[in-house]
Amino acid sequence: MAEISQNIPKAHFAGDRQQRGRYVTIALSIALVFTAINSLGVGATGLPIWEILARFLNGIGLTHTESIVLFDIRMPRMVMGVLVGSALSVSGTIMQGLFRNPLADPGLIGVGSGAALGAIIAIVLGSYLPAQLAATFGPSLVPFAAFVGAWATTLLLYRVSTRGGRTSVAVMLLAGIAVGALSGAVSGILIYIADDSELRDLTFWGMGSLAGATWTKVWVAAPMILIALLSAPALARALNAMALGETSAMHMGINVQRMKRFAILAVAGATGAAVAISGGIGFVGIVVPHLLRISIGPDHRYLLPASALLGAIILLIADMVARVAVAPSDLPIGIITAILGGPFFLYILLRNRGMLEA
Amino acid sequence: MFTRIFSIVAAAAIGSTAIAQEAEQRIVSIGGTVTEIIYALGKSDLIVARDTTSTYPAEASQLPDVGYMRALSPEGVLSVDPTLIIAEEGSGPIETIDVLKEASIEYVTVPTGYTADAVAEKIMIIGEALDESEAAATLAAQVTDDMQAAAQTAAHADPKSVLFVLSVQGDRVMAAGQQTSADAIISLAGGQNAMGAFYGYKPVSNEAIIEAAPDLILMMQSGGGHPITDEQIIAHPGLGTTPAARDGNIARIDGLLLLGFGPRTGDAIQSVNTALYAE
């Protein structure tokens, strides 16, 4: 491996970038801890973080309502923001590396359309479920259906595009378009039979929100997302090799097929779980990897952990805006990630055009 | 001795705050009709926040808005420090309602319904929650009488047909079918729904509109949005050919008044009836 990496062009930059990657990762870790703590003090009820700290230090404690706000509303919301933000960003990074395409996101492997279809089925047809079954699922019916939809679509696409133990990325992209159209049509039929309030539910689901955060949702989604996040670094070397093309990666001793399967499963698990609990939150997954590549370069050993951190930070900040922007009402977070992220990303693109074209 | 006096004073103080809290309900009102009924019962000063659909009376719009009734955020509702939440059936999401109940806030659900009895039940439930059962009974009786009287005068042996248009998007008409509040108000007002073949609000083809040949086109008066003008209706390939458009029988009534099924539904029945049969 050592000899090969010396042959990679521009290898003399590696040292410089490596150090930068390390610094950025450390800085992002500190920023995430700071943002996460700060987010516990932001919300419609007031109760800022210094007041919470002062109360505990003075041994006064919180009132019943305040402790519900802190422990049952803001804390699960913060944890969910961190999980969802890092899941979306890491998935985006893996997808862009795997497909060697700057526009790639988890949507390519059908996660988005599958989850949306699952959610729509649950929202519209949920009322036809036998009462007993509906009672068992309760509020977790929509997240559960979204997760199943995401997984089922991804597995279907994987099966379609894999032949003789080899997954064709091109077939997967095209099959993804076909499956997307199909699930769009089924969604259309369901939207047609949906009533007024179900339509509003669908619209809100599509814009995403962390307002419905509960510990139950966190416990259900956390294992999926954590497994994907913790195993992502194992993909770093393979993704770096993939940058040179599939054949080169194979010659470098990477088991490309195994790596593809692993990456697709990890992304489907993490994104499926994230979308299931928070609805559709766009933009984060596609932008975060680009921002980081501009600042620390394309080395996935740093790119993967840094995108987990930056994704979590961005989603927490967006969620803090969502909580207070129109208080006591709550803004869907997808709107904020797009409103804040869109212009910022355009600015970054304009400033770094040369770098991206190279 | 001193401690005893102190404890008595303390007990009295605690007792009096408890009574003060009892008297000072802080209500979050979720649903346009719920808010309207609380106002009609003269308890509007107890409302501390409302949802987006609560637009009548106009003063209600001055209150803080906790968002759309089906997408409530728990902390948003808690931030106005309520003691009682009165919510129309279908408010949510469930996660939010669970947290609010956890915070030991009283939560009252008001069922929806499209009959005089259903409206009376809404009023009675809200009255009970406000400890105003007597006033509620009076109001319920009055509203029921209004509705029944209006419906009786409105009834027609040979009902004219009414098309309720929810919206026109890109020349595509969304109309009300069966089991909608629009369908209910049309039949109470002595008309017949021109679109009885389907349930809920659905897009309808121009041919179906021509075939239905409604005598009246009924629409909601949208406050800030772009209402559909008469010119647009006359120029529309489907709506333009109907007897309603030809004779200029186009009525626009405030959405909450028309479809809310609350204290003003008697008026709504009369308005629709007038639009239908008055020459």
Automatic annotation (TrEMBL), chain A:
CDD domains: TM_ABC_iron-siderophores_like. Pfam families: FecCD (PF01032). The chain crosses the membrane at residues 23-50, 78-95, 107-129, 141-158, 170-194, 214-236, 262-290, 302-321, 333-350. Keywords: Cell membrane, Membrane, Transmembrane, Transmembrane helix, Transport. It is found in: Cell membrane. Gene3D superfamilies: ABC transporter involved in vitamin B12 uptake, BtuC. InterPro entries: ABC_BtuC-like, ABC_transptr_permease_BtuC. One of its GO terms (molecular function) is transmembrane transporter activity. The keyword Membrane applies. Its main location: membrane. It is a multi-pass membrane protein. GO terms for biological process: siderophore-iron import into cell. One of its GO terms (cellular component) is plasma membrane. Belongs to the binding-protein-dependent transport system permease family. FecCD subfamily. This is Iron ABC transporter.
TrEMBL record, chain B:
Residues 26-279 form the Fe/B12 periplasmic-binding domain. It comes from Marivivens niveibacter. InterPro entries: ABC_Transporter_SBP, ABC_transptr_periplasmic_BD. This is Hemin ABC transporter substrate-binding protein. The lineage of its organism: Bacteria, Pseudomonadati, Pseudomonadota, Alphaproteobacteria, Rhodobacterales. Gene3D superfamilies: Nitrogenase molybdenum iron protein domain. Pfam families: Peripla_BP_2.
